[in-house]
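Write out this protein's structure.
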Amino acid sequence: MQHRPSVRAAAALVACLLATAPLDAQAQAVNPRASAAMAPAMEAAVEALVASWIERNPEAVLRAVEAARAARTAPDLADPMDGLIGPAGGDTTIVAFIDRGSPSSRAALPVLAAAASGDPALRVIVKELPLGSEAAVLAATTAVAARARGGHAFRAFEAALVAVSWPPGPAELASAAAAAGLAPEVAAGARADPTILDYLRRTRDLATSIGVTGTPAFVVGRRGIVGLRTVDEIRAAVAEARAAGAGR
């Protein structure tokens, strides 16, 4: 039976080709023009070799991607602009992807808060992932602006937003922002703030890279959970992550 080359074998082959770089550097000292022409040719040859190998072995690439996903635990997914429920240095982390336009996502927030309130070592990271309406985007950007003022402002905004009907009108959103201490112009400007928009882009890219296509979605340790869960189910997932040593 003929065995296809492994990912490791392909990587070793590419490494061997790239190992010729010092020779090219020596050639550059002798003939810079010849070396400048050689470098793109070598790069093209390596790219062609890798592309050919991937085309012949797509299943190996998929295995490598899945292994890379599995190796990432919840703390690896954190971003400095994420929301935080619970202690900053807890021994176990939940990462929650939330679309505030989704009823299930909005219902998940108090569930996560309840789970964290009964577990002083549980850290919950809230990632804004608006997938639909403009109201969801406005709520997400305002939430990120509230976080910049600290945990108290973020919690005040969350409490005020949960109390309003969905979708919130401009007055209701402004009221929730005011509860967090945000001036009206700051809340309104959050929608166009390039730093906040870049954060939303990073979150979307991360969600795509780990296979999140809907909300709410949670990563607990190395386990992914999709859909609304009860407090007991969240606590069971946390206990499982702790037992596996994957919480942090």
